[in-house]
Amino acid sequence: MGIELAWNDWVGVTGTLMALLAFYLLQAGRLSGTGIVYQLLNLFASLGVLVSLFGKFNLAVFLLEGAWGAISLYGIGRTLRSRRPPTSSPLA
Q1: Quick one: CA dihedral 34, 36, 37, 40, positive or negative?
Q2: pLDDT, greater one: 88 or 44
Q3: Mind listing the pLDDT tens digit for each residue in 55-72?
Q4: How far apart are CA 23 and CA 20, in angstroms?
Q5: Which parts of the chain fold into alpha helices (H)?
Q6: Which parts pass through the membrane (predicted)?
């Protein structure tokens, strides 16, 4: 009597473990909350949990993980924009 997991369940479990790892590393001071690694871990974690919903849909989890992924994308964009060298204006 073992647990049988479909491929999408394994992806969801992996996503959950990634979210927990990101949170642990943040709390342990090993990652910065504004760092790209933390944000990517959160993005891929949310995508993994969203993939798990292919097996059995859950609206609450969908909304949570969709928002989590969107916020992660925003953070990634913000981080990448802040790393660009400032452009100089020819009129300045």
Answers
A1: positive
A2: 44
A3: 999 999 999 999 999 999
A4: 5
A5: 7-27, 36-52, 59-83
A6: 6-26, 35-53, 59-76
**Mean pLDDT score across all residues of the chain:** 93
Question: The domain containing residue 71 runs over which residues?
Answer: 29-82
Task: State the distance between the two ends of the chain, measured CA to CA, in whole angstroms.
Answer: 73
**Is 16 contained in some domain?**
no
4 part of a folded domain: no
**Whose structure tokens read 């590393």?**
25
Quick check: is 33 in a domain?
A: yes
* Buried/exposed code over 13-24 (b: 16+ C-beta within 10 A; e: otherwise): ebbeebbeebee
Asked, for residue 66, whether it belongs to a domain, the answer is: yes
